[in-house]
Design brief:
heterodimer; A: 301 residues; alpha+beta; Sulfite Oxidase, Chain A, domain 2; five-stranded mixed sheet; 10 helices; B: 193 residues; mainly alpha; Four Helix Bundle (Hemerythrin (Met), subunit A); 82% helix; globular
């Protein structure tokens, strides 16, 4: 599995129609029965490319600003105000700029980008994001020759984000990429999903998404992008450097100290679905492996 | 009323089973059903450990021995839910694939300590009958003090598997500490007498 074209993936509604068609015809009852036996079911490749439902994508979130349980972000983010919203691009650049959300949506056209999301906790989704390459946004400034990394700062607003009233992480949420990672075409600025405006619980109005890294690398509700000389310390590195490395590339061969990363559970697959094998770089190795050539990924986890 | 109190507690203790059955039947397990089932029984195991540990302090506070008659049943429910918790992890999540499981138990400290806690529950369950109490005499009490270690292991298991201690693991930790402090107070006052 490499990258998905939209045409390769069955939309949720058509998929369900197909399923119900098969069931209603009652055809191949034995084949159906066989395919529901987990360890006999080898045709998992098609299952793992299926779009996760809008409901699951928007009600099962890790977004500690709105609470630590998976259902908290949906519940606590509905009245979150995303207008007006400015994003500053600053740091080691010749001329810092500040763009409003309106300016950004006028400057860049969002396209549908279907990527797999692998959470460090061992579950995954397939999400039809709307967005554009971060490189386009970053090209609006000229970094100085000191710039080596890009830092992302999420919004700090404890009045609206009740998770931030507690020291769960060192707020505001902070993430970072090496410049070449940030400029990679797969690194996406996300403005929507399923063809709609990005819901608050998914990081509205603007977040990034890096498909070959664990989900926590993809910072939400970004207000500041900063070019820096030294490797930034992300919020999760700060919380537990032993567990969360700067790179955090999806890697089935490097276990998280507390849980294995060899397999994952696909969200929405039901109680009887087995775990599936996790792919190196979340399946995007052809595109991104060259970024890390010569690096020991066990050390640089 | 008192005569039926044990029956009442028994059926109340089945609450986690009612909840999960409802969620299974009405498809309410959410996007990660396996995780939901494992966590459900894990959490209830901890709650039952805390309930079991509450009976003696309640006896002290209310000066009524009534509470003690529920202690064994609550303890057995702890073992019951711990076993379902472990079985759903072994069976539902890993499908009895023992190679990665053994690897997990040895390499992941939260699984190691959780599994140890379950193992330690076994002798307590076996020696819970009236006959065993009489047979083991003084030793029975010593064996059953294991529940303190099991409680500590269980809460550590929860803290270590969570990405952050906020808030549920922290709440369990505080409650456990309070209940254990009661024991220190009890032994101290016993010394005074």
């Amino acid at each position: 599995m490499i990258k998905f074209k939209n045409s390769e993936i069955t939309p949720e509604n058509i998929y369900k129609k197909r399923r119900s068609f098969i069931k209603s015809v009652g055809l191949g009852a034995s084949t159906l029965a066989m395919s529901s036996i987990p360890f006999l079911n080898k045709s998992l490749a098609s299952e793992r490319d299926k779009l996760t439902s809008y409901k699951d994508i928007t009600t099962y979130n890790n977004y500690y600003e709105f609470g630590t349980s998976k259902s908290d972000p949906y519940r606590n983010s509905q009245i979150f105000k995303t207008t007006p919203w400015d994003i500053a691009i600053e740091g080691e650049v010749e001329k810092p700029i500040k763009l409003s959300m309106e300016e950004i949506s006028e400057m860049f056209i969002s396209e549908e980008r279907i990527y797999r999301l692998r959470c460090v906790e061992g579950w995954s989704m397939v999400i039809p994001w709307m967005g554009f390459s971060l490189s386009k946004l970053l090209s609006k400034v000229n970094p100085t020759n000191k710039a080596k990394f890009v830092e992302f700062e999420s919004v700090y607003d404890p009045a609206q984000m009740k998770g931030q009233r507690y020291p769960v992480l060192n707020w505001p949420y902070n993430e970072g990429l090496r410049i070449d990672e940030a400029m990679h075409p797969l690194t996406t600025v996300v403005t929507g999903l399923y063809g709609k405006k990005l819901p608050n619980q998914n990081g509205a109005p603007l977040r990034i998404f890096i498909p070959w890294k664990y989900g926590f690398k993809s910072a939400k509700a970004i207000v500041k992008i900063k070019f820096v000389e030294n490797m930034p310390t992300s919020s999760w590195m700060w919380a537990s450097p032993r567990e969360y490395g700067f790179y955090s590339n999806v890697n089935p061969n490097v276990d998280h100290p507390r849980w294995s990363q060899a397999t994952e559970r696909i969200i929405g697959e039901g109680v009887w679905a087995p775990r599936v094998k996790t792919l190196m770089f979340n399946g995007y190795g052809d595109e991104v492996a060259s970024l890390y050539s010569g690096m020991d990924l066990k050390k640089n986890f | 009323m008192r005569r039926y109190s044990k029956t009442l507690v028994f059926f109340l203790s089945l609450w986690p089973i009612y909840v999960i059955s409802y969620q299974i039947i009405f498809n309410q397990l959410g996007p990660e059903p396996v995780d939901r089932i494992i966590n459900h029984f894990g959490e209830w195991t901890l709650i039952f450990i805390l309930l079991t540990l509450s009976m003696t302090p309640l006896k002290q506070i209310t000066k009524s021995v009534e509470w003690i008659k529920f202690r064994r049943m609550l303890g057995l429910f702890t073992f019951f839910y711990a076993s379902i918790h472990m079985l759903s992890y072994v069976g539902l999540d890993y499908r009895f694939d023992f190679e990665p499981l053994i690897n997990d138990v040895l390499k992941k400290k939260f699984i190691f300590i959780g599994f140890s806690a379950w193992l330690l529950l076994i002798p307590l369950a076996i020696t819970s009958s009236e006959r065993m109490v009489r047979l083991l005499k003084q030793n029975w009490k010593k064996i059953h003090r294991l529940i303190y270690i099991i409680g500590i292991f269980g809460v550590l298991h929860y803290i270590w598997l969570s990405k952050t201690i906020f808030f549920k693991p922290l709440i369990f930790l505080i409650l456990l500490i309070v209940l254990l402090l009661f024991r220190i107070k009890i032994t101290k006052s016993a010394f005074k007498i």
